[in-house]
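Write out this protein's structure.
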Amino acid sequence: MTTQCHAISMSCGGRFRDDWIRWSPAQRTFLLQGMSEAELAFLASQWDVFAHDHQRPPELAPNGAPWLIWLLIGGRGAGKTRAGAEWIRCQALGLPPFATEAVERIALVGETEHDVREVMIEGVSGLLAVHPPDQRPLWQPSRKRLEWPNGAVAQAFSSEDPESLRGPQFGCAWSDEMAKWRHAEPTFDMLQFGLRLGRQPRQLITTTPRPTALIKRLIADPSAVTTRAPTRANAFNLAPTFLEGVMARYAGTRLGRQELDGEIIEDRPDALWSRTQIEDSRVAEAPSCRRIVVAVDPPASSGKRADACGIVAAGISDSGIVYVLADDSVAAATPTLWASKAIALWRRLEADALVVEVNQGGEMVKSVIHEVDAAVPVIPVRAVRGKWLRAEPVAALYEQGRVKHAGCFAALEDEMCDFASTGLSNGRSPDRLDALVWAVSSLALQPKAAEPRVRVL
């Protein structure tokens, strides 16, 4: 190690970090220009020098004791993934000042297996990217595990399979985008039972904000510390055009406050649905349904700027309760793509029919579906009233306890709790909500005499 590297190494976490923050851009440039490639690579690996304050682990919990849960809530691009990957690197290798000893067994939990691999492990700010070559763990996709040279092991898990966490044990964990997890409560619960190794098992949760019951409970937990960060806190590492564009469009809006400022936005006072109402309607799974439909709200156009295609499935039980079963809505899709997605869901759920709004496209909408599969039963529906008036009777069914959610549908529920007489706060079309309204209406608000009939077009 060169003299300059040695000086940096000895002062990291102390004077060098303070100096780096204090120095002007010209002074930093002067230092960097005098370094060799080896020195630059070494400096880049010193996370303690460059981490933002919100990316550094807190010292104590609100109760004055060492924290057990670190909840890092931030806007898009705020550096949450980098913070999570660096924290795990420090835990696996026992790197001070963020760890006092190496943790031998680690859990990595994401929304899906794809997210764990593509974001947490192989992503541009993921675990493989933040390690210098001589420290980098070996990723074994078939075994869903990382192995470090010192023997530390991290296992990958998905919130889609909470039971996979039953049995393994860990000394620390990193959970990413928990606010989006489909089975958030059981996955979190199973993880807590597994955190039983070492003197003080800890966990980091990195997530964009959503006011889910679990997130709100963790914020209030006296053993948990919440760190917040807006997107602009990481502006140096973001494309200027991105920051300028999204700020110009979304600054001050409800969506912007959530996705850019990292705020947890509670219910919109004038919305038809509330978070509490939806949480109260949630069940783990639906019973056998006597009728299932997949409702489709096609976009008026296709391409990158087109509205999403709402695709929502629901079923009705013998007791007359409607269960929302799936939200497979797709953004910026071609007609063939959204038709294929809707038909795939129809097949997977063995549904009775597709309920399709034909205001936009009419015969074209039906022909697109039949080009993919001519055997699919299609029930055309046409909107003669505005979105608010169509949604009101469905909202009344929720109030009566006649609609349940079989699982968590975060994007759909966000639209529901943001939909008022003036529409969504971001001005976009409530495509998922429209599909939900058509699905529930076709099952619970149609004349009973007409219900058994399925017209094949």
